[in-house]
Design goal:
Blueprint (H helix, E strand, L loop, with lengths): L14 H17 L5 H7 L6 H13 L3 E2 L8 E2 L1 H11 L7 H12 L4 H16 L2 E5 L8 E9 L3 E8 L4 E7 L6 H15 L4 H14 L6 H9 L2 H4 L7 E4 L1 H4 L8 H12 L1 H9 L9 E4 L11 E10 L2 E11 L4 H18 L3
Antiparallel strand pairs: 1-2, 3-7, 3-10, 4-5, 5-6, 8-9, 9-10
Length: about 350
């Protein structure tokens, strides 16, 4: 997450004021109620009068970190306050022993890769009070364990792939010329012997390099393999790669009491392709966990949402992504550490 730059002369220049803002955000996350100066004064290690805290909160409101929903009410954090809060706690947040054991139990109980992803989305939904989202690797980035081709009529080939971790993926592709089953068997045998443990992207790049270096030396087998390993032909509809859980709980969040915002949220959840784009962007992020407060890319509902996401993979080859999309009022320490830990477990599972 990129660091916030404090304006010169900001109220946040003082350590005391930063602590007060942190307490306000934490109290609001815990209670969901506007936070009074008296409640903040009780949280301070350094004795402060409610009047002193009230003055600081007024300064923070003036700078856009807090707002007062009603004249007689306490203060509520803004997006800027949540960004500040996450910046303060992200580096120090640690996963609790109870959450670590619970996550391990949940994922260990799964018997198939698909069930692991379903359980992971459940875990992430639980810790965020929002959506838990897991995106399986696109076929181009999947690590191949075994591949098989079946010839079908009308220039069609059924491709069956077993990826690392035991996930079976199949795709019906249409090719420009017909293949005999013998050609397909010889191509599959070659790929299984020479490229087990490679991604389809890497396989295709290696085949292209060999053909480009000495086309005469490499026979039709290589050209066949190049055609049949084309990720553009093999990739499936992104909507089929997304595991989402938590819709029922996020729609009951106070942020979506407004019917227009609720409709926008439900539309965003239904548009799985947008969720894929959002979470895939974290792969390009330099941080191990990407945190975005306010997700305007979605639609009207995005201003009330936070996204915490992380890529997973092995040996610095990121293959998929996972995360939470939840209300601004979220247990950030718990969500951030859970996302990081589940991503790590996924990466380790890809090695086995």
């Amino acid at each position: 997450m990129s660091l916030m730059r404090m304006p010169r002369g900001s109220a946040l220049d003082e350590q005391r004021n930063r602590e007060i803002l942190t307490h306000v955000v934490r109290a609001y996350i815990e209670t969901g109620e506007p936070v009074s100066s008296r409640a903040v004064a009780r949280r301070q290690a350094e004795p402060l009068s409610p009047a002193t805290v009230r003055n600081v909160m007024a300064d923070l409101e003036e700078e856009g970190y807090l707002y007062q929903p009603h004249t007689s009410a306490g203060r509520v954090p803004t997006e800027a306050a949540y960004r500040f809060f996450v910046q303060q706690i992200a580096a120090q947040a640690e996963l609790s022993a109870a959450d670590r054991e619970w996550i391990q139990r949940e994922l260990a109980a799964a018997s198939t890769p698909e069930e692991v992803m379903e359980r992971a989305s459940h875990v992430l939904a639980t810790v965020s009070r929002g959506l838990g989202i897991v995106i399986s690797p696109p076929l181009a980035r999947s690590v191949l364990e075994h591949i098989r081709f079946l010839a079908l009529p009308d220039h069609r080939v059924l491709v069956v792939l077993i990826t690392r971790g035991g996930m079976a993926r199949d795709k019906l592709i249409r090719v420009e010329r017909p293949f005999t089953q013998d050609e397909l068997d010889r191509t599959a045998d070659y790929l299984n012997r020479h490229y087990a443990g490679w991604t389809l992207e890497a396989i295709r790049a290696d085949l292209e390099a060999k053909l480009g270096h000495d086309r005469e030396r490499y026979d039709r087998l290589y050209a066949n393999a190049l055609v049949l390993c084309d990720p553009k032909l093999l990739d499936v509809d992104p909507a089929r790669q997304v595991y989402v859980e938590g819709t029922a709980q996020i729609v009951t969040a106070p942020e979506f009491a407004d019917q227009e915002h609720l409709r926008a949220l439900l539309a965003a959840i239904e548009e799985r392709r947008r969720l894929v784009e959002l979470l895939t962007s974290c792969i390009e992020s330099p941080e191990p966990v990407h945190i975005q407060i306010g997700v305007k890319e979605i639609n009207l509902a995005g201003e009330h949402l936070s996204l915490i996401s992380a890529p997973y993979g092995q040996a610095n080859q990121f293959q998929g992504s996972l995360g939470v999309l939840g209300p601004l009022r979220m247990e950030y320490e718990r969500a951030i550490t859970a996302v990081a830990y589940v991503a790590r477990l996924f990466g380790e599972s890809l090695k086995t």
